[in-house]
Design goal:
Elements: E1 11-17, H1 23-34, E2 38-40, E3 49-56, E4 71-79, E5 81-83, E6 92-94, H2 101-107, E7 113-117, E8 126-127, E9 130-131, H3 132-137, E10 147-159, E11 164-171, H4 177-187, E12 192-202, E13 205-206, E14 211-212, H5 213-217, H6 222-225, E15 230-231, H7 245-252, E16 257-258, E17 264-270, E18 273-281, E19 284-290
Parallel strand pairs: 1-14, 3-12
Antiparallel strand pairs: 1-3, 1-15, 2-3, 4-11, 4-12, 5-6, 7-10, 8-9, 10-11, 12-13, 16-19, 17-18, 18-19
Length: 292
């Protein structure tokens, strides 16, 4: 059944995705409730829970601006077991030593900073026009190239049982926590899988001000939904580009103007309303993303 109302504003919903749901399921629910196109700003595996920023309307055009945002995860790594998916949902093969908490703490700093990481084969990585998980499920033998990711820091938070440990991870976009489980275990000369994952932060979006998915499941009216919509401009940490006269008219007509502003990204307003993003390159300014 199609909703009759539509959100009149664009922005973001900060949804707390439960474990067991796909990110697409959450996005589709937001789309149905809001009546406008929506898209997530960084997917979570079905096993994972936590912060899932969902762009509403034109805010989906900002995906690239969220790629390098710092993310924080609380992961459970279970040692003495391996898996084809690198997590506990795959085919489990038991074997390998269980490290001590001190051994885990000792090896974590080796992964801080820029590291090269091989993504899981069961991932959405594109391989000759097909997703990695499609090839893996079909039994095709293939290799994925290592990619550079950034780890800001990790710390051991708890020992959950004899084999499972909690680790807090602060990392940049594109990091596979499942791959970290594999690589940390390899450094300890054993095996491990990711057995649970919760994202507590993605850029400015934090778990403390997220929307429980149960709220969305109750099909709130648009008037209630709007209370949880985060304005687009509030999540963009860019300075404002001031315009006036002929220069302003040229910019809003899609033209490039010369400027004394330094190179970078700026927010731009039209008639006191947020309009979009402008880029300055070598003293030339042009509007790149219209968001109003």
């Amino acid at each position: 059944m199609k909703r009759q109302e539509k959100l009149l504003s664009t922005g973001f919903f900060n949804v707390d995705k439960p474990s067991g749901l796909t990110s697409s399921t959450v996005v589709n629910k937001c789309k149905w409730l809001s009546g406008v196109p929506c898209g997530h700003m960084g997917t979570l595996d079905p096993l994972a829970s936590g912060v899932l920023p969902v762009g509403v309307g034109n805010a989906t055009r900002l995906f690239d601006h969220f790629l390098e945002k710092e993310k924080v995860y609380l992961a459970h790594f279970t040692f003495g077991v391996s898996s084809d998916t690198l997590d506990s949902t795959g085919k489990l093969v038991y074997g390998g030593e269980i490290p001590t908490p001190q051994q885990i703490e000792n090896v974590l700093p080796a992964f801080f900073g820029d590291i090269m990481q091989v993504p899981p084969k069961y991932s959405a990585k594109n391989v000759n026009g097909r997703r990695g998980y499609e090839l893996a499920r079909a039994g095709v033998d293939f290799e994925l190239a290592a990619k550079k990711v950034h780890i800001f820091g990790m710390r051991l938070t708890e020992q959950i049982d004899e084999k499972t440990f909690g680790i807090e991870i602060r990392c940049g976009g594109g990091t596979y926590i499942r791959s970290l489980a594999r690589d940390i275990a390899t450094a300890l000369h054993t095996n491990a899988v990711m057995s649970a994952l919760r994202r507590t932060k993605s850029g400015i979006f934090e778990i403390g001000n997220s929307i429980p998915f149960s709220f969305l499941e109750n099909d709130p009216p648009v008037s209630e939904l709007e209370k949880y919509l985060i304005p687009t401009e509030s999540v963009l940490p860019f300075p404002v580009f001031q315009t006036q006269g002929k220069e302003e008219q040229m910019l809003f007509n899609g033209m490039t103007v010369f400027t004394d502003y330094v190179d970078g990204t700026y927010k731009i307003y039209k008639d006191d309303a947020f309009y979009g993003l402008l880029e300055v390159t070598k003293k030339r300014a042009k509007i790149k993303t219209k968001l109003c």
